[in-house]
Amino acid sequence: MSSKRRGDELDSGSDLASDSEVNELGSGSELESDSDVNELDSGSDLASASDSDSDGEDIEKESKALDKKLARQVKDADKETLELNIQESDDFTLPTKEELEQEALQPPDLSNLQRRIKEIARVLSNLKALKKNGVSRKDYVDQLKLDLSSYYGYNEFLIELLVEMFKAAELLQLIEAFEKPRPVCIRTNTLKSRRRDLAGVLLNRGVNLDSALTWSKVGLVVYDSQVPIGATPEYMAGHYMLQSASSFLPVMALAPKEKENILDMAAAPGGKTTYIAALMKNTGLIFANEMKKQRLPSLTANISRMGVTNTIVINYDGRELPKVLGINSRDRVLLDAPCSGTGVISKDESVKSSKSLEDLQKIAHLQQQLLLAAIDLVDANSKTGGYIVYSTCSITVMENEAVIDYALKKRHVKLVPCGIEFGEQGFDKFRQYRFNPSLKLTRRFYPHTHNLDGFFVAKLKKISNGKRSPNTDEPSETVEEVVNLNDKEAVNLHDEVVLNDKEDIVEEKNKKRKRDGGPQENGNSSVGVDNGNKKSDDQKSQIIPVVKKQWEKRAKLSREEISQAREEKREAIRRMKAEGVVSEKPERKKSDKTWNKVKKGGKGKKGKKT
User: Fold this and answer.
1) Distance of CA 514 to CAs 209, 511, 594, Å?
2) Is 418 a catalytic residue?
3) For range 232-240, the mean pLDDT
4) Which of 276, 216, 214, 207 is closest to 235 using CA atoms?
5) pLDDT of residue 53
6) Interatomic CA distance for residues 424 and 449, integer angstroms
7) Whose CA, among 77, 312, 342, 584, lies 20 to 30 Å from 10?
8) Rg for the chain (alpha carbons), in Å?
9) What share of the chain is helix, strand, coil (3-state, %, to 5)?
10) What is the pLDDT of residue 132?
């Protein structure tokens, strides 16, 4: 009777059976099947069993039909909604000047701005098919910049920079990711604990964490905590360090070895320095440099708390470190350079509106100087090292690829793989700029793709301890052609390093001949004439190499190079005097005014001026 009643209800127009009814049907069919089995066992009629089975099959078929009908209705509704959305999107047009002026007079309509941003991004993703007649790509991009600046609070310069770097759809994902904080991470201090033991202790204290960083063996992600994560007994004892996951990457790329001599050029607050010490197992020597004195207390406190004993803290401008520590004196150098912070906007939203082109240019110039100093500190002949790691928390090309490309031209270094298995390749070309193809070996990290702060990492290997020529990518070779000493322009450009031009030599010989009463030369006579005799080819060859060696270096020379060139100049003059090409200075009479002018503190009447 139960099964018949359910069938009558379905026939009377019921569209959907409830879950309870389905359960009742199932239980009823089970009871009937049990009763049928009992009847068969007791010798009852087989016809009654066949009738009950047929009723159950009919209900099952009707239930399946209802399910199909419902699924078809939902599918049709979704299709209709999608068609309406597409129709609305196809009708999207950019606002006119009058509409924009009207919007400017009213409070910003955030929902309208957000809808327009998404629509413009959709059009730019398939511009050829979706753009309106008479509207150019520039019109869409300009409106997108304006809306993004209004909605998210970026200044015109920074939003234009981001638009140049990313496609519209990816740019929206990046900006949205900047609006959300990155996960809180801690790094296990392997000098005092193991990650598994630390995780167990913190879980017992009410900290919800997980080892979600599959690429790190010491990182833990903290989701929430019932206790302050920076004030637990384990934190005070130095078992872990509060540190962003992205700052693990430079140390992983550096890959320090035990018993090496390593420098961290910008060490505060000490997260990367203590990580290096842990990987070195407190062996070797680490110099932790920090230029800002106000950051030294946090650096020294963290080094002490983490149990690091192989580190010396110093306070110098990073550009002066080659003079302080000595060139070619380190096995590895880590430079986490100061930057604009465009990769950590989620931590400092003031970056959105405070950065300008001038700021980036100044920062990039400082980064170039620091990187060259870091390269000079590394010993190319180190048996285990010879590496420099450069990193920034910025995503701009000016602070990253452009700086590395500059270093490749100025020093004997090459890019090598970072040893990090994930991340996007660096740019080898950007807009009108073309960089070294090896810049693909650098790594970029973004919040919308890796859930990390925006970061850049590059690893350099020093090939030679020398320096490249200032003008060319490759070391300059000696010029084989004879240098024309009549080229006054060249002499003026290199008056500090060129040996002597023709006029100086002629003047010296004229002074000598005036004393001897002989004929004097004019400025057009041969350079190698001495008392009417031409100078030999060997004597010419002794003068020219000094000149032609400096001929190629038209850029500003370093102090060491100028000092060396002056010493070569003095040596050449002494050699020429010994061969008689240039005479000794004439003896001055005691009546000369200059002879008697001796400054205070001199050696006497005939002494040299002091």
Assistant:
1) 94, 5, 20
2) no
3) 96
4) 207
5) 56
6) 9
7) 77
8) 40
9) 50, 15, 40
10) 83
* Lowest-pLDDT range of 99-108, 158-167, 515-524: 515-524
User: How many residues appear in the chain?
Assistant: 610
The 184-188 sheet, strands edge to edge: 207-210, 219-225, 184-188, 240-242
Residue 14, pLDDT score: 42
User: How far out from the chain centre does Cα 398 lie?
Assistant: 10
Region class of 284: left (phi > 0), else alpha (psi between -120 and 50), else beta: left
- Alpha helices in 378-466, H assignment, sequence order: 401-410, 447-450
The number of beta carbons lying within 10 Å of the beta carbon of residue 541 is: 10
| Residue carrying structure tokens 């057009």 | 524
Q: Are 273 and 267 in contact (CB under 8 A)?
A: yes
Instruction: Judge residue 585's burial from the number of C-beta atoms within 10 Å of its C-beta, 0-12 exposed, 13-18 middle, 19 or more buried.
Output: exposed
What the block records as the tokens of 502 is: 């023709």
Q: Reply yes or no: is the peptide bond before residue 228 cis, omega within 30 of 0.
A: no
| Candidates 185, 339, 393, 418; catalytic one | 393
DSSP assignment of 254-312: H---TT-EEEESS-TT-HHHHHHHHHTTT-SEEEEE-S-GGGHHHHHHHHHHTT--SEE
Rounded CA separation 475/472 (Å): 7
CA distances from residue 27 to 19, 23, 34, 582 in whole angstroms, order as listed: 12, 6, 11, 123
